Amino acid sequence: MELLVVLLIISLSLALIKLLSSKPRGKVSTSFLTNPKNRQLQKRLLVLLCGDVATAKRLLRQQRQLHRGKSDNWYLEKVIYDLERDRYR
């Protein structure tokens, strides 16, 4: 019976460790929080997308996957550039 309790505790501990380690980190660069240009770009992007936040997030996520290591402003400028370029073709 004691062995069963010990195994149960170990299993729960391992499950908890796995759950906590697989949780995505909320890493946000400081430029995202402090740079006023970033806020202007966010507003401009939302205007281009008629307030569609889900689409903005999706487009930014795609650019982050394609071009790793760039700044937050770069991703915003890239998405805005692509939208404006495609809109006027």
Automatic annotation (TrEMBL):
Superkingdom as given in the UniProt entry? Bacteria
| Name by which UniProt lists this protein | Uncharacterized protein
The protein's organism comes out as Anabaena subtropica FACHB-260
